[in-house]
Amino acid sequence: MTTQDPVFNIIAAEEKRQSEGLELIPSENYVSENVLQAMGSVLTNKYSEGYPGRRYYGGNEHVDQIENLAIERAKQLFHADHANVQPHSGANANEAVYFAWCQPGDTILAMSLPAGGHLTHGSPVTRSAKIYNFVGYGVTEDGDIDYDEMERLAREHHPRIILVGYSAFMKLPDFDRVKKIADEVGQETGEEILLMADMAHVAGLIAGGVHPNPLEHGFHVMTSTTHKTLRGPRGGIILTMGKVGNPLRKPEHTLENIPTLVDRAVFPGTQGGPLEHIIAAKAVAFEEDLQPEFREYAAAIVENARVLAAELQRLGFTLQGNGTENHLILVNVKDSFGIDGKFYETALDQVGLTLNANALPTDKGGAFRPSGVRLGTPAATTRGLRTEEMLKLAGWMRRVLDICVAAGEEAGLDAHEPELAAIRAEVKQLALNFPIPGIKA
């Protein structure tokens, strides 16, 4: 008799947690059964260093077909000249672009982490920040990119890359204005400036036609994760505009050759063997994203976020940027109600509503006790929740908030267990009416 590995019992418990709760973390989503099937395929057995038609191992005829499908579908999805589907993550994709275009010590201008940027955009705790000189621009009081500051810093520091990307930013970027800044500064210095967009959070909205595409506004490179709003497996992708060449031959260091420079930076520059089972799952997800239904899904994400943000404001919550233009919502619970984001996150977790504590641009609470929480609508929208359910979500969030205020601190939540349990029962009842794709009931 074979004893089942307890790992599978834990996976079953996680399935139950996901099914009985509602996921509001804006960087999480649910994949289809077909994506799950591709991830669990025999492709995980195969080594395939190199690129289609240029591998360092034999037996890659089928792997080449799959990777080529992923590349072509990604190009079609984002109107790109080339796609590299091998990055293991969004962080790897960003590092590869830096490595492709910059020398150690070169300056990269990006949104600062406190303003809503990402760790890989120059946080001092990261490897890339020890290699390159990151200069951070911020946001205005109304939550938009401070383009005047971006221009001033670009003229002062002469960056090799201007990067537009974020993990907590609720506006639509003005890509044309950024390009104008890069063109003017580049003419002054006589050096080509790479325009890079890290659209990990909104790539699905771009694919669905409800968010501007930076590649259609003069940007040279767009990086992204393939999960989040794209509903694919965890991984990364790099889309490029320019002349596609042989990655085994080093081209001239020009913006025109950025596709080949990026390919060389991914392999052999920063990664070894690609994860072909994940690339197969990316190909499946991209095909799903190309369907008309996905455009409807992307529009529903934005509408759900708009309704949820408006209802939270009506219930007394202060929102960074006064709302949202995408799927991200950043709530200032400290200013609104005097509690910190981590306390609120913990309480919401107890009722089956999962989001994450998040710092605000002017936060003094630090990373572990920030003043805000970050939430979004992609995962809930995938399950079929629409605007009516968004109103219920906001109502539960306010009820939990009131419990937090009454409790005073996390230890005080124990005295409010009956109230929390009642809300959890309501959340569970709603959640089970909206099954998760790929999980059999």
Average predicted confidence as pLDDT: 95
Cα gyration radius (Å): 22 Å
Strand order of the largest sheet: 4-10-9-8-7-5-6
Number of helices: 16
Number of E strands: 15
Spans where pLDDT lies below 50 across 5 or more residues:
none
Biggest sheet architecture: 7 strands, mixed
Residues in helix, %:
40-55%
Q: Measure the end-to-end span.
A: 27 Å
Broad shape: globular
Report the structural category: alpha/beta
| Beta fraction | 5-15%
Essential attributes:
441 residues; single chain; 7-stranded mixed beta sheet; 4-stranded antiparallel beta sheet
Structure write-up:
The protein is an alpha/beta fold and 441 residues long. 44% of the residues lie in helices and 13% in strands. The chain has 16 helices and 15 strands. The chain has helices at 6-20, 33-39, 61-78, 90-101, 127-131, 147-157, 175-189, 203-207, 258-270, 276-289, 292-314, 333-337, 341-350, 378-382, 387-407, 417-432; strands spanning 22-23, 50-51, 54-55, 82-84, 107-111, 133-137, 161-165, 194-198, 221-225, 236-240, 318-319, 328-332, 353-354, 356-358, 372-376. The strands form 4 sheets. Strands 4-10-9-8-7-5-6 form a 7-stranded mixed β-sheet, with helices on both faces. A 4-stranded antiparallel β-sheet has the order 11-12-15-14. Helix 5 (127-131) links the parallel strand 5 (107-111) and strand 6 (133-137). Helix 3 (61-78) runs parallel beside helix 10. It is globular, with a radius of gyration of 22 Å.
